[in-house]
Design brief:
Blueprint: E1 9-14, E2 23-27, E3 33-38, H1 43-48, H2 55-64, E4 70-73
Antiparallel strand pairs: 1-2, 1-4, 2-3
């Protein structure tokens, strides 16, 4: 059974290395990790936390987000 996404969620983009790809983190209002995925493959992780319907908005924000910066998602 899927639960509703948390009301206050945050996004963080992590810079990869030559061997490790860039990753995106989605965290709840208590800053617990709720999704962690490669920037190139977000569907499974976003489906697990009931955010798949917001995929376009999340990826647009992630693409414009600086590495290491935290931003509150207003979606």
């Amino acid at each position: 059974m899927k639960t509703a996404p948390p009301s206050g969620i945050y996004i963080l983009k992590i810079k990869g290395t030559q061997r490790i790809p860039d990753y995106i983190q989605i965290r709840d209002e208590e800053f617990k990790l709720i999704a962690y995925f490669k920037a190139t493959n977000p569907k499974t992780a976003l489906a697990r936390c009931n955010l798949l319907d917001k995929i376009d908005q999340i990826l647009a924000i992630a693409n414009n987000l600086e590495y290491g910066k935290i931003r509150k998602l207003e979606i």
